[in-house]
Amino acid sequence: MNHLYKHALIIIMLSGPILLSAQDENIGDISDGSRTTPVHVIKLIDQDSSVIWLDESPLMPFSTKKTCEACHNYQIISTGWHFNAGDSSAVSGRPGQPWIYADPYSATQIPLSLRDWPGTFKPEQIGMNNFSFIATFGRHMPGGGVGEKEESQSLDMYWRWQVSGEFEINCLSCHDAERSHDQSLYAVQVMRENFRWAATASSGFASVQGTAKDLPDTYDIYSGTLPDQPQIIPPQVTYQLQRFNKKSEVFFDITRKIPVDRCYFCHSTKSIDPEKQERWEYDEDVHLKAGMLCVDCHRHGLDHQMIRGYELNEKLNTNDAVSSLTCQGCHLGSGESDNVPLTGRSGAPRPVHAGIPPIHFEKLTCTTCHSGNWPKDEAVSIKTSMAHALGLPKTNKSDYALPHIISPIFAEQADGKIAPHNLFWPSYWAEMQGDTVLPLKQEVFLSVARKIIGYIDSLATGDWPQLADSHLVKVLDSLMVSGLVSKTPVYVSGGEIFFLDDNKNLLQQQHKAAAPYLWPVAHDVRPAAQSLGIRECNDCHSTNSPFYFGKVSIQTPLQMDRVEKQSMTEYLDQNVVAAWVFSFSFLFRPWLKYLILFSSLIIFAVLLLYGFRGLAKVISIISTESQTQNKER
Amino acid sequence: MYRILLSLVIIIFIIRLIWIYRSEKWDFNRLKNIFIQEISQFYKRLMMSEFKIDFYKNLRYFFISISVILFIILALTGIIPVVFLGEQMSGLLLIIHVTIAPFFVVALMLTAIFWAHFQQFDHSDFIYVKYLRIKKEGQNPDINLHNFWPKVYFWLFLTFSVPAILSMIFSMFPYFGTEGQITMLNIHRYSTLVLLIIVLFYTNLKWQRSIPFRKAKGVERGA
After folding, report:
1. Does the model's ipTM exceed the 0.90 cut?
2. Is residue B18 part of a domain?
3. What sign for the dihedral angle of Cα A67, A68, A72, A76?
4. Residue B222: inside a domain
5. Could you tell me which chain B residue has the CA closest to the CA of A609?
6. B50-72: per-residue pLDDT in tens?
């Protein structure tokens, strides 16, 4: 036993320096104070830590991890917000946009996330392992996380990972300012399961051909082509020779001032507004128009813990600098540390908010009035980069392509404040036991549902099919008899669950598992002149204002006679009658204001009149008293 | 701060209520009778036949009764969220508050017009003030039924109602920014707090005078 302790102690002592060094900053992480961006003319290093020379064969893709790690601490960087979704110790923070597995052929759109966001499912719940999760959604990820951690790679997928390679953090996704950097090529490589080659392909000085997806698990990446299957082209790199100097070094146009286009690749939103169909009719975020960059507010240190900018951010209470980078902190001041003024960073103007009662700032986030689309009678559909794979060569450009997301929805956040949200209605095949509804595995619902509803014509647009009750009955019945489902099969859609009774009659009921998933939106920020309230109270407080009474359509593939539209008040947690009465009062409120002014004037006049009379009386009494006293004397 | 002050006022009022009840052996049946009597009188004044008998007098009482009722509603809707919920007024309470407020202001204006003349200070009030000095010196004039303090409360109420009303009205026009809005809100809050204190003082005075037992005690003391 003593030996055991001794060995353990020796191991800890030996590994101590290693563990400590993992937390150290490397040479490139420590600033000497110069604001100049260092010129990055560096050697390319592959995954085996070998320098890449152009006369080698086969040429290997460079590893961003190995290449950048020479000067930057990759371990610290990998804890950043963009990379730590699969880390159970990472703070999940405010719910954000989930990854949405959408399949029109099975009428499915289901929110997935590696973070603990309520309303989302873990990929493994629908039978998606980390490899297929990366292959499906890695197109709009900057790498890292579960894509490169060995402990998150299942044993049965070991050889597959060996073929595709680690899904390393692609530093170039953000930090490459080179105009020829093409992030869509990165996305294409990821979808081809060429994880190892993805960063190289996007770099602008190399191209990649071939597909790891087609290769067998036994493929050796150093062996070149498959002699027995010459039609399959393994991934191959071709570098632009002129970009290499004699030392085999390459210039990377690396910047800390991340160009907006880099952010836009993953964070674009397209509104499908029937009244505004041309791109020129839309404006960008007002901050960008003022010359700012996304990273001017969304800052971080070496740990890449991006400041998300919302008021509830976990760091807000401990770091005034973080607080000062929220809307309120920057424009109004957080009111915390008064030693050094932190308000007005980057010249942020201080808003006057003339005529807006302070209750609005307690009940609403800044984004309610200033962000997202101007609300209309009915929330419009939107497409986002992450959900709809925007920016890729073969993206489905149809406005009806799944998943169906609508915006803006004014809803209460966890802190009780109202904020604009994006919303989508989950639709998926599940099984129910008691009150618990859990989604079915991919291989189960795809194999059954696709056979029955996957032929319907409307699918050409990427939209889901219009499902009749008979379709539902057929799929649910098939699931039941297939033996693949042990509990009651259900279809979750449009806020309800649908299932069969013993006589195979279709039943439906509302269920929390069918609740819509919402996540707050902060951009694009509109200028003050186009914010809610600019036309005074009526922008929101009128009986037909979209803020209170806008329609929220229930998106579902089920036939339209079943679905209804909701009122925005349901998400505001307000009674629709009370909201209407309050809004109605604003119709005659201007008259009442003048009536009250008039009444106040009269009261004031009465006070003045009798005040003067009282004064006269006091003077009179004093005089009389004085005279009386004089007479008495 | 405002919440603390408002809570203090309410607590002191409740303590006073309990103190009156315990020390004066307040008869709840009598209080109930007074209340019923007041309500029935108010109802009668609403009837036109009663109005015709002494039209202006009844109108005068009608307006002040309306003002009092509306003030109670405004006070309750204003106090509940601040004291008990610790937040600004919103939702249903806000709807009630802002709907009632204009009617209260109009009723108050009419009360001011109809009552101002009767609430003027005159020579007798001057004499009363002099009596107060005498009381301090140990004499015991019968001053309880004098109308001096109700007049004081009346004029104070009218005076503080002006900033209470105007602060809210001005904040509804786009003239004041956030700081101005907060200032206006504070003016409204503290003015209405003073109004509440005045009303509570007046209520206390009314209670003191409506308790027959006290007078009996006074007689005993005098004897």
Report:
1. no
2. yes
3. negative
4. no
5. B116
6. 555 677 777 888 888 888 889 99
